[in-house]
Specification:
single chain, alpha/beta, 6-stranded mixed sheet, 38% helix, globular
Length: 253
Amino acid sequence: MLPSIDKPADAATLELVERQRTLYEGPEIDSRLDHLIRETPHPTLSSRDIQQLLRSSRALYFDSHVEVVSGHHTGVYLRFESIARFPDLITRIALNMAEWIVDTFGNDPPDGIITTSSDARLLAQRTSDLLATRLPIRVALTPFNPQTGKIGTDIVHGSVSAGERFLALNDVTTRGMCVNKLGTVVTDHGGQVAGMMVFARRDSGQFPLMAELTSTYPFYFSVDLEMPQWEPADCHLCREKQPLFLWRDLPAL
């Protein structure tokens, strides 16, 4: 039996959820997923691995109208919390992240990973655990507000000391603002940013900061997704009067 929605939802949300569940149970889901996954410029997880991961977690909302943390609107939304429910999926991603760290920094390993206290911490900690016998890397956490999606600039777990090198890790990135903010936390404490890591890049080439970050730092992402976003004034779904959903109100499917 499919899981029930944890809290009461309005009719529009119920209709959206049922439509998504029907899609995941039907024959079209693989082609819909394949259409979103772009080739990555460096070896990460295979397209088949990503497709299976996204299908089994039901992490994507299709044909929707969602306002994300930045205030932009999108028609396809990736809910990382759906993936984080499954330890085996977290391990699959973390294994690839760990391999990338060894390949990239094996001769000069970073001191740690900094991430938020969101579900991204599960990726960071599992990656650290997998590296424990080869490249010991500790995890530092910053605050995370689950209602706003904003991250704080304090360090609530672990520490960053002057001269230490850290990887900034987030679950997904669109504009690059959050992962860049994590890097700023490192430098504000006297450390250095060794590289950046995210599970999914979903900016569709729209935002110049992402191009700057990927050209400045060693940058890992498991999957590159074609997920354009728009300012509300430019959103065709708004003009079509499609119901708008807030990212934090979408339940697991």
